Amino acid sequence: MGELAHPLEIRAHHLLCLLGFRGLGYSLEFTKKMGKVAEELRVNSTFPITILTECDVICASCPHNKDNKCCKKPYSELKVKARDLEVLRRTGLTTGTHISLGTIWARIKKRLTPEDLVLICQGCEWLELGYCAKGLEVLETS
Ligand code: SF4
Ligand code: SF4
């Protein structure tokens, strides 16, 4: 796996998934990529990011990505895009802009609580594990 692109394209709700990542995922290739991105982004607050509401660098390694659409279940593409848009609506972040990761974490920290994930992430199989809520909680106390 090579160096990560600068700026790195991340779909909005994946910012939250990265906070809660603990090695689980949809395939070995997927978890390797997610791990690489999470490892880098957790420590490098100056990393430049471009926010998307479509398939990103993580989806690129996902077995559910077909032709750059999320096909995990019927209507998944619509549902994950709605999740991205909800993250943007709540945080005030916007797509297409190059923004430092530190600015993104600060905005998420200010505008989102672990309880918000119940609505934002409804339908996600990983939600009930509580890892993502914990990740957000840790961000808020850092
Ligand atoms: S609950 Fe699912 S969608 Fe929400 S942040 Fe976690 S992994 Fe991502
Ligand atoms: S399940 Fe869908 S949104 Fe999530 S990483 Fe895979 S293709 Fe992307």
Question: Care to describe what's here?
Answer:
There is one protein chain. By secondary structure, the protein is mainly alpha-helical. It has one domain (8-141). The chain is built from 6 helices and 5 strands; from the N terminus they run βααβββαβααα. The protein has helices at 12-20, 28-43, 76-91, 101-111, 117-120, 131-141, and strands at residues 8-11, 48-52, 65-66, 69-70, 98-100. The longest helix has 16 residues, at 28-43. It is globular. The mean pLDDT is 94. One iron/sulfur cluster is lined by residues 13, 16-17, 20, 117, 121, 124, 126-127, 132.
Write a concise keyword list for the protein shown above.
mainly alpha; 142 residues; globular; 6 helices; binds iron/sulfur cluster; three-stranded mixed beta sheet; two-stranded antiparallel ribbon
Main sheet properties? 3 strands, mixed
Percent of sequence in beta strands: 5-15%
Which strand order does the major sheet show? 1-2-5
- Average residue-wise pLDDT: 94
Structural class: mainly alpha
Distance between the first and last residues' Cα: 30 Å
Query: Any idea what the shape is?
Result: globular
Say what oligomer this is. Answer: single chain
Are there runs of 5+ residues with pLDDT below 50, and where? Answer: none
Question: What's the total count of β strands?
Answer: 5
Q: How many structural units, i.e. domains?
A: 1
In DSSP terms, counting alpha (H) and pi (I) runs of 4 or more, how many helices? 6
Bound molecules: iron/sulfur cluster
Rg to the nearest angstrom? 14 Å
- Helix content, binned percent: 40-55%
Run of helices and strands: EHHEEEHEHHH
